[in-house]
Amino acid sequence: MAHYDVLVVGGGTGNNVAAAAADAGLETALVEKGPLGGTCLNRGCNPSKMLIQAATAANHVREADRFFLDATLDDIDYAAIIDDMDETLAPIADGMEARYREKDHLTLYKDEAVFVDDRTVAVGDETVNADKVVVAAGSRPLVPPIDGLDDVDYMTSTEALYRREQPDSLVILGGGYIAVELGYFFESLGTDVTIVEMLDTLVPREDPDIADAFTEIARQRHEVYTGHRATAVESDSDGVTVHAETEDGETVAVEGEDLLVALGRRPNTDTLDVQAAGIETDDNGFVVTNDRLETSAENVWAQGDIADNAMFKHSGDYETGITIDNVVHERGSEADFTAMPHAIFTEPQMAGVGKTEDELAETGQDYVVGHQDLPGTPMGRAKKLDDGFVKVLAAPDGEILGCHMLGYEASTMLHEVVVAMRSGSGYVSDITDTIHAHPTLNKAVEYAFQDVTFA
């Protein structure tokens, strides 16, 4: 049995923990069966955002006449878009692996890990244990049991991102961020997209005003069936048929050349058999951690998608710093997930931080609302924006409770609110007292916070 000071299971954000441990002189093992960089670099946010940029560029050409520019989109080399993404990102993972194989005090195992005992894993034909273990093995697409699905050649996001042949038509199961981002990509490049979502709106975890507005925008682009649960799937020589029904029993049959299952993600705790190490999980299979990211097992920490915190790459990056502090330097640092932002990279984009209006209503929290439409701002007019808004939720004493945006570059605009909530006083005045350069789009943020009125 090989023994190490630190064992890191998972080469996504966990690779940085392993590197820090090795740099500190600790004998370290890193186990990752796939390319280093994890989901974000190889199967998630990096490839998807590169593809979305191509989709947005195509739409900019289509809309050039709004600025009295004569431009025509004559052709789309779909395969070249995929190849460019792959050829850009693959060398990053390959280079990371090459560097790690040369790093002192670090041993890289390219295989799957399965826990067999306390701080002990089987890796291929070997058994490895360590004084300290970090579980960072991420998540994978969730594929629920739907009648007939196992007999159909469907895609998850992993396959969809690297598909070289563009489908003429595509049915997407799910209406969350993965579904709408990929729906936007395929539709913008010429695929007829149909989305089937069980709940009443797309992106149902967003603030209700955001979800309602984006659902209407999506209906202008796609066939959208909200309030429909997929009950069965079948295929023939022409493609796939998804059968879905409403709560009232109304049924619909949706047809397409291909099928994309985008119904969320699940943690990889089952494939790791974390119970064998005494690691507690919640009802959804996520590893339970405390503020120091410690698990129920002694000297075992967890971070990233597999843990019971936010499933965002930026959350994983933040957790990495906490884990390094505690595993490598033994500082006892505690994580603070206050004001965790998120963004969805359709066009228009969506972004949010803090509580939604539904969440505040459920808890009985008193709040006031501020609002500003983007088209009514100077930069909104200059960009000829048709949609978008900033929505502020604040307590009666001025504390910022949440902020939600739909619109051009919302993912960037949000960050001044995040800074105010994490580093400022966290009050409306943090924004209204800030001088905003005119006529930037962030003036919409200023106007929305100025719109907050207190009794």
Question: Would you kindly provide a written description of the structure presented here, covering whatever features stand out?
Answer:
The chain is an alpha/beta fold. The protein has three domains: 2-140 and 266-328, 3-Layer(bba) Sandwich (FAD/NAD(P)-binding domain); 149-263, FAD/NAD(P)-binding domain; 342-450, Enolase-like, domain 1, CATH 3.30.390.30. The chain is 32% helix and 24% strand. It contains 15 helices and 21 strands. It has helices spanning 14-23, 38-43, 45-62, 78-102, 157-161, 177-188, 208-221, 269-272, 313-328, 357-363, 378-382, 410-413, 415-422, 428-432, 443-450, and strands spanning 2-9, 28-31, 106-109, 113-117, 120-123, 126-135, 139-141, 169-173, 192-196, 223-225, 229-236, 239-245, 251-256, 258-261, 265-267, 300-302, 342-344, 349-354, 368-373, 389-394, 400-407. Strands 1, 2, 3, 4, 5, 6 and 16 form a seven-stranded mixed beta sheet that branches. A hairpin with a 2-residue loop joins strand 11 and strand 12.
Keywords for this structure?
single chain; 455 residues; alpha/beta; FAD/NAD(P)-binding domain; Enolase-like, domain 1; 3 domains; 7-stranded mixed β-sheet; 5-stranded antiparallel β-sheet; 15 helices; 21 strands; 24% strand; globular
